[in-house]
Amino acid sequence: MKAALFHGSGRPLEVTDVPDPVPGPGAVLVRVAGCGLCHTDLHYLDHGVKTFKTPPLILGHEAAGTVAQLGEGVTGCAVGDRVLIPAVLSCGRCGDCRRGRENLCAELAMLGNNLDGAFAELVAVPARELVPLPASLPLEQACIIADAVSTPYHAVRRRARVRPGETVAVLGCGGVGLNLVQCATLAGGRVIAIDLSDERLRIARVLGAVETINPVGVERLDKRVRQITDGGVDVAFEAIGSPRTVEAAFSLLRRGGRLCVVGYSQEPATISAARLMYHELEVVGSLGCGGGEYPEIVALVVAGRLRLDPILSGTLPLAEINDGFDRLRRTEGVRWVVTP
């Protein structure tokens, strides 16, 4: 099969022929219809973030497709089934899995990190992880539910616990940030979207933001937000992965507010312990999505309450995957999808 191999940071992916994966007991082979290009992949490609599996490795963790082959003992699905593959795979047995927190599994494995991912024609995954997809959802669009939609949904509903009428700030309007905007709007929040791109702020309006701010045009971001909200926001989401933006998001909170960090950074951020204590603030992290949340999300997409089309910028053949990542680096579009 054709696959895009990662050989290390600072090098382009190599599109080449590799052996077809073989599904072991309890696993299936999925023919990939679409896999999203994510900024997490750029952490590996550009920023020296190490993958758990030593390269060469097939990246890609945001995939949908059809079941092509069943491994030994697989029941409950059939060849030809249309499926979504969660970005993070769990064991289903540990304490966190049994408590419904599969994203914190003791044996957590991420496609395109711990094991070969879906920038390929075929990928092998445990059958128990598959999420059925209805015929009404095009697979090359539905694939972004695996991360770009599910990660924000989990952050809004489970971690930040956005409630109707609360004011919400979203710092960073990439694929994850724009879906934080629409998930927080769906939860009843009044959302302020913050980004350096006026085009992404326009999309944020489409997805429900009631206010948008480009920091380039304001003297002090925290002062502007306090003017709009009469004192600060109830919830701030950081969706970039930078110590500076974590600190900026913390500065936007009103008394009793909550900061939810969704972006990834290896660097430490500094916040005021005095303000944290004196204003009874909360700081929480959010990682991926629990397996039990995916059916909720798919149902909301089918019902039209969560939209995919404003996020999707277009599709590319696997042979043009490096061009797709160049577009991501230039902030052209929001979510590009390769169609192996």
Give a quick rundown of the structure.
This protein has helices spanning 39-46, 95-98, 139-142, 150-159, 175-186, 198-206, 221-229, 243-250, 273-278, 294-302, 321-329; strands at 2-6, 14-17, 27-36, 57-58, 63-70, 82-85, 88-89, 109-110, 122-126, 131-132, 167-171, 190-194, 211-213, 233-238, 253-261, 282-285, 312-316, 335-338. With 340 residues, the chain is α/β, with parallel strands linked by helices.
Describe the structure.
The chain is an alpha/beta fold and 340 residues long. It folds into two domains: 195 residues, Quinone Oxidoreductase, Chain A, domain 1; 136 residues, NAD(P)-binding Rossmann-like Domain (Rossmann fold). It is built from eleven helices and 18 strands. Strands 3, 5, 6, 9, 10, 17 and 18 form a seven-stranded mixed beta sheet that branches. A six-stranded parallel beta sheet has the order 13-12-11-14-15-16, sandwiched between helices. Strands 2-1-4 form a three-stranded antiparallel beta sheet, with no helix packed on it. It is globular, with a radius of gyration of 20 Å. The model has no long low-confidence stretch (mean pLDDT 96).
